């Protein structure tokens, strides 16, 4: 298959931790904008 879901899911948690994309890291980081702030007008 072109996309192996099981392979992806095996590593996704580790990848998110490395990139700082876990929910706990989001909540403690004040520098990340809320999704409502990321409208096309802000670009």
Main β-sheet: number of strands, strand sense, barrel status?
none
Number of helices: 2
Helical/strand content category? mainly alpha
Give the rounded overall mean pLDDT. 70
Structural overview:
49% of the residues lie in helices and 0% in strands. With 43 residues, the chain is mostly helical. It has one domain (5-42). The N and C termini lie far apart (37 Å). The mean pLDDT is 70.
Give the topology, please.
Layout: H1 5-19, H2 23-28
Features:
single chain; 43 residues; mainly alpha; 2 helices; flat
Short description:
The chain is mostly helical and 43 residues long. Helix content is 49%, strand content 0%. It has helices at 5-19, 23-28.
């Amino acid at each position: 298959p072109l996309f192996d879901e099981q392979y992806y899911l095996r590593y996704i948690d580790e990848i998110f931790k490395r990139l700082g994309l876990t929910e706990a890291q989001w909540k403690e980081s004040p520098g990340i904008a809320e999704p409502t702030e990321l409208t096309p007008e802000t670009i």
